[in-house]
Amino acid sequence: DLEKDMFHDPGYIRVENARIRCWKSGGHGSQTFLQVVENSCNPGFVELGQRLGKETLYKYINNFGFGTKTGIDLNGEGTGILFKLEKVGPVELATTAFGQGVSVTPIQQITAVSAAINGGYLYQPYIVKRLLEPETNSVIQDNNKKLVRQVIDEETSKKVRYALESVVSNGTGRNAYIEGYRVGGKTGTAQKVSNGRYMVGNYIVSFIGFLPADNPEVVVYVAIDYPKGVTQYGGTVAAPIAKAIMLDAIDALNIQRREDGSEMRYNWYDKKYYTVPDVIGMEKKDAIKELKKFQIEYSGSGKRVLDQSPVGGTRIYEGEKVRLFLSDQD
Length: 330
Fold this sequence. Notes:
Elements: E1 6-9, E2 12-15, E3 18-21, E4 29-32, H1 33-39, H2 42-52, H3 54-63, H4 90-97, H5 106-117, E5 121-124, E6 130-132, E7 139-142, E8 146-150, H6 154-170, E9 184-194, E10 197-211, E11 218-225, H7 234-253, E12 273-275, H8 284-290, E13 295-300, E14 304-309, E15 315-317, E16 321-327
Parallel strand pairs: 13-16
Antiparallel strand pairs: 1-4, 2-3, 5-8, 6-7, 9-10, 10-11, 12-15, 14-16
Helix pairs in contact: 1-6, 2-4
């Protein structure tokens, strides 16, 4: 049970002679398995992999399409790299459970996550919807949805959606949260390999997100190879980019704002959303009091607010800029 079964993370888990660390120094302590997913806790995923066993874990890995080409209508598709089942020992099982030691392609990732959240159905992806004869406009080729297999049932898929929505509202994916919309997703941070060895401080960071979380229409995958000058975590670097893309998708697809989305749980270090008050017509000193949660910039001079940007009623982060246009006119 995601919310009842518990796991204690002291910051590492020992598997044979290997000590597999959590990204968080000192670990996450006692947590539910929902929190394991929210926190992207590697020792917790190792525990889940051990409970499944290598045969069951690899059955799902294969059924979700990893290790084989998806059949997308593009040349040069790769298969990715997985351990051969007969060579999977306790350490390989542990690292595979949280995605280390294996390689998958972005389209495999998109296809598998789509299956996990759409009710459990794996479809063959395609780029071109149809080909038309230019003179007659007749259809030469029409790509329709092609079902490959059902991997999990609807009830399990619903639990996956619930867990991944919680990642965005409560966990490492908070930078992809969009107020008024139900967004799910998962962060990823993969250490790169060179000449058979893991590279120190060199990661591919990623985020895969979808919305609406209860009835997905859009899946977005963002991966960044070795981001420089920033903390190399998927939630820090990739999630904000995915959020920007999803905001564009909301406009393009006219996805409606809703009031039943998950509330984001804030930590002390998170910035919060606030509504910008309408200060047009106020004296400057009174407007400053009203805007104490924001950074204020001024255009013009005078004691009265003639206009403001953004307008009153807009929701922005604490500390963001509000520009006041000043004048002495009444």
